[in-house]
Amino acid sequence: MEINVSEAKAQLSSLINKAHRGERVVICKNNLPLADLVPHKPQGKRRLGLLQGKWTSTHDLLLKDSDVEAMFYGDAR
Question: What predicted TM-score, i.e. pTM, was given to this entire model?
Answer without folding.
Answer: 0.53
